[in-house]
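Hi V.,

Quick status before I head out on leave. The structure for the redesign project is tokenized and pasted below; the design run finished overnight.
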């Protein structure tokens, strides 16, 4: 299915940039000798790998968004899973689950920064490998939550596909029955379909609201600790401030390109509001975060940023720094 050129090209371009920027970021992290990030380095590398996995899955299961009266629809717009099948339906549900993993990743970022500033022994004693394993489990559970919601509450069954059939046929000249879809139907359906839809949207809304609350609470605590800067050297404090600025930008990006469009998609049909332009932008915006995430950190960490243009062809830095210019975080 061809929707428009931006929908077709931008996610693919973002995916290509993700596979360019994330390996570059991983290389800068692993080869850096001055920026001692401790266990945080492992987190950043792991999250960059996830970014590439997310970009690959976005290419494998590209999404489209449609609405009709009291229903919103997310469907596979092209590729090997575009034709209806149980496997394709599950692939779409998992693709929706990838969205919330972004929130889970940022949760871990905030929690780690907070524990480091409070000099928690949990980081030094248990993070490797237990903390990293727990991080993977936490992200996986977040993904499974949204995947389960799509499978059990938003499943595109015959009733829901029939409800949106005419509008889908009119817009795309294709039959809704032929596509893998997740559909929320708020009114004008059977009691079972309506109740399931409301339960599903409440679950994903509470999950997203909890994420935003955690960001603001921990962000406020981190800012207070940075202002107090008790028992922290000037250089370490500067590094912590740079990392927090990067984290702030990393948080604002998914709020703008993921959470806000999702809220419009979820609740627009409740009030018969047609946000078609936002719906189209939402599917495009979902592909942006994996390629921007590493860039935000590089921009706000001068030690990494400078290495992009202070290296000669042999790969050796063209400037030198005294040993005491290195930063240590943990």
């Amino acid at each position: 299915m061809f929707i428009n050129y931006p929908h077709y090209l931008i996610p693919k371009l973002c995916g290509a940039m993700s596979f360019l920027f994330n390996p570059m970021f991983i290389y800068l992290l692993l080869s850096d000798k001055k920026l001692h990030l401790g266990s945080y380095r492992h987190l950043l590398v792991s999250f960059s790998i996830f970014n590439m996995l997310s970009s690959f899955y976005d290419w494998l299961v590209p999404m489209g968004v449609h609405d009709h009266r009291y229903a919103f629809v997310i469907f596979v717009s092209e590729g090997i899973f575009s034709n209806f099948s149980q496997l394709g339906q599950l692939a779409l549900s998992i693709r929706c689950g990838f969205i919330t993993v972004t929130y889970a990743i940022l949760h871990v970022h905030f929690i780690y920064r907070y524990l480091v500033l409070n000099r928690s022994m949990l980081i030094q004693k248990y993070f490797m490998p237990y903390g990293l394993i727990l991080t993977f489990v936490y992200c996986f559970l977040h993904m499974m939550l949204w995947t389960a919601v799509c499978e059990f509450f938003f499943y595109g069954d015959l009733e829901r596909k029939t409800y949106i059939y005419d509008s889908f046929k009119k817009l795309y000249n294709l039959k809704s029955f032929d596509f893998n879809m997740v559909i929320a139907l708020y009114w004008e359906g059977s009691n079972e379909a309506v109740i399931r839809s409301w339960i599903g949207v409440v679950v994903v809304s509470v999950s997203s609201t909890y994420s935003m609350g955690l960001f603001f609470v921990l962000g406020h605590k981190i800012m207070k600790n940075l202002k107090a800067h008790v028992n922290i050297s000037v250089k370490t404090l500067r590094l912590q401030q740079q990392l927090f600025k990067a984290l702030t930008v990393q948080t604002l990006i998914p709020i703008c390109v993921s959470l806000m469009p999702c809220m419009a998609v979820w609740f627009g049909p409740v009030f018969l509001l047609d946000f078609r332009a936002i719906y189209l932008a939402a599917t495009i915006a979902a592909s942006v975060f994996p390629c921007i995430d590493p860039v935000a950190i590089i921009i706000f960490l001068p030690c990494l940023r400078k290495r992009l243009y202070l290296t000669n062809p042999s790969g050796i830095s063209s400037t030198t720094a005294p040993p005491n210019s290195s930063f240590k975080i943990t």
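Above is the designed sequence. Strands lie at 35-36, 63-68, 71-76, 181-185, 327-328.

G. will cover questions while I'm gone.

Best,
W.
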